Amino acid sequence: APAPPPARHLFSDPAEVEALRGNLLAWYDRCKRDLPWRALAATEPDANRRGYAVWVSEIMLQQTQVATVIDYYNRWMQKWPTLQALAQASLEEVNELWAGLGYYSRGKRLQQAARKVVSELAGRMPRTAEDLQKLLPGVGRYTAGAIASISYGQATGVVDGNVIRVLCRLRCIGANSSSPAVIDHLWDMANVLVDSSRPGDFNQALMELGATVCVPKAPLCGECPVKQHCQAWRRKLFGKPLPVPDVEDCGVGDCPLCPPATEPWDSSLGVTNFPRKAAKKPPRVMRTATCVLERRGCHGAPEYLIVQRPNSGLLAGLWEFPSLPLAQDLQEETERKELADHLQAWMGQPVAAKSLQFIGEVIHIFSHIHQTYVVYSLHLDGDMTLDPALSPSRWVTEDEFHASAVSTAMKKV
């Protein structure tokens, strides 16, 4: 069995835990940001609607910054103020509102879960973290804990990226913060720390601290309400305090939470020595040929052909200009030929490669893909018949294009 973590990595003093809670909550009451989902969670008397409001915000906030989410959240709650309203919406409507927010499967799973609540749970949100995670598709351990603590007052901790950073610095946890052993320990710590009288506020305070003060680079340690409890700050301020063994000394044994001996404390980094993460895999490099097919509409305005992507995989169910993945290092002449052959299926007539006008290249970075779109255009003089056996397709004006469920990448194109 692995050795238990030394006391330095734990919150084992009840007096310290109580002091940390009080300092953090007092800071949160003074400094918390005014966010729409917090206002709803604090004022909505209906428990079901309160849980739904927090749930939507937590799903949107996954991998997405608060500033980006606010507008999407307000429009979502205005359009679908209840679970029942969302359950009646179409996936196309969900995708249209979600367009540009990224990680599109989140919206799809949110709608699927809303339909399950309505059809299988009599429209009642589960009230505990355990049931939320077990019964709702797309709701993991963190989201379940956030909903249960903020909406229903369950004294359960949460661990997200901000909390990981705060806890790793508070207790000088320098092992790979994405490893299962470290994550399990952080969850144990979060559950020890959570304030049973104000669990939702405490969890939001811990996340708020990581988002606004204990940030990844250049943290504002002077403004931190819990710096006196932070071992990384003490290490930076005092070097090697005598009452507490040096964090590097801990790594001499089998401590699963200390930095590896090959990566000792870097005094120039200070508290940003923590957390430590495994090196990211480089993104996959992809090239895609994309053609903007344009015709003159019945009212004289130009119209563009968009086609729907498959219902699974990257950007599932969204609309795009006809596109074709390309092998790397193709000559431009070969790319044109392959795209022309691909377009013939949509147009039902031969397409000459030389008729495709090269416009330029658009680079878009997905979380795991470095995508280059090689953009061509083709103006059509006559009409064309689209094969109904192919993927769904339609002609749209520019305004209709921007109102459709299209990705940010296609808007760049």
From TrEMBL:
This enzyme's EC code(s) = 3.2.2.31
This enzyme catalyses:
Hydrolyzes free adenine bases from 7,8-dihydro-8-oxoguanine:adenine mismatched double-stranded DNA, leaving an apurinic site
Q: Name one GO molecular function term.
A: adenine/guanine mispair binding
Would I find Iron among this entry's keywords? yes
Q: Which SUPFAM superfamilies match?
A: DNA-glycosylase (SSF48150), Nudix (SSF55811)
**GO cellular component labels:** mitochondrion; nucleus
Q: What class of enzyme is it?
A: hydrolase
Task: Cite the cofactor comment.
Answer: Binds 1 [4Fe-4S] cluster.
Recorded hits in Gene3D superfamilies, A to Z, give: Helix-hairpin-Helix base-excision DNA repair enzymes (C-terminal), Hypothetical protein, domain 2, Nucleoside Triphosphate Pyrophosphohydrolase
InterPro entries listed in its UniProt record: DNA_glycosylase, Endonuclease-III-like_CS2, Endonuclease3_FeS-loop_motif, HhH-GPD_domain, HhH_base_excis_C, HhH_motif, MIG/MutY, MutY_C
- State the SMART domains in the record: ENDO3c, FES
List each copy of the HhH-GPD domain by range.
60-212
Q: Where in the cell is it found?
A: Mitochondrion; Nucleus
Q: Which UniProt keywords apply?
A: 4Fe-4S, DNA damage, DNA repair, Glycosidase, Hydrolase, Iron, Iron-sulfur, Metal-binding, Mitochondrion, Nucleus
Family statement: Belongs to the Nth/MutY family.
Q: What is this protein called?
A: Adenine DNA glycosylase
